[in-house]
Each structure stands twice: as C-alpha cells, then as structure tokens.
Amino acid sequence: CIRDRYKGTYVGAGATWDRELGSTTTLKLAADFGWGSDGYMNGYFGGGVGAGASDLTFAVSIPWHVLPLITVESHVSWATLLGGAKDFVDERDADWNTVFFGVTAMFSF
User: Fold this and answer.
1) What band does 62 get if pLDDT is binned at 50, 70 and 90?
2) Where are the beta strands (DSSP E) in 1-109?
3) Which residue among 15, 73, 93, 103 has the highest number of C-beta atoms inside a 10 angstrom radius?
C-alpha cells in the first residue's frame, strides 16, 4: 500500500519577527526548520536517507489590514532541502531550492 511508505514523523520549529510599518501594515519575517524520522524521510526521498534535518524555509510577508475584520497578506518564501533529503534530490540532478509567492485574503470575526 502506498500509504505505508509515508509512515513517520515530521517535526517543524519556527520563529517569526513582526515590525509595524504603519497603522494598517506590518512586516513579518519567518524562518522554519523541519526534521523527519526514518519513515518520513525514506517515504518521501527513498530508502537509505535516514532520519535528520529535511528542510529550511525563510519567508517575508506584509499583512495589510484593509478593514478591521479583513486582512490581505502578500508573501514570498524561499525553501531548501537539507541533509539526506538534499543529497537524494541532488543525486538525481533536480532542484533542492524553490521560491514561491502568493496572496491571502482573511476575514476574521
């Protein structure tokens, strides 16, 4: 069963820093680190990778509070694989770095 290949644990830890830019906008910086167990790493990256650091992500976002209950947030992030995950992907001549971006609209009450 394909589901059995992905049995394992992924643990993520992160930190954020916020700085008010004005009465309706904020600058947010974030960093996240991921670690995977043997089951997780071998399921996603193949046998023999082993447990260890798997990824690191840095993000910059700017939430804009359009109205008291509505926030629009644009972000750009850079993610990279680490350790055995990076080596596994590198051996296959594939990218282990990626940049992604987006916009999120939130309504809270």
Assistant:
1) very high
2) 10-20, 26-36, 52-67, 70-81, 97-107
3) 73
pLDDT tens, position by position, 67-94: 889 999 999 999 999 998 898 888 888 8
Residue 84 CA to residue 80 CA, distance in Å, equals 12
pLDDT digits (tens, 9 = 90+) for 23-43: 899 999 999 999 999 888 988
* 3-state class (DSSP) for residue 2: helix
SS3 state of residue 76: strand
The torsion angle over the Cα atoms of residues 20, 25, 31 and 36, rounded to 10 degrees, is 140
What pTM, to 2 d.p., does this model score? 0.81
14, 39, 89, 109 from 81: Cα distances, Å: 16, 17, 9, 37
Distance CA 99, CA 70 (A): 27
The answer to whether 41 and 85 have CB atoms below 8 angstroms apart is yes
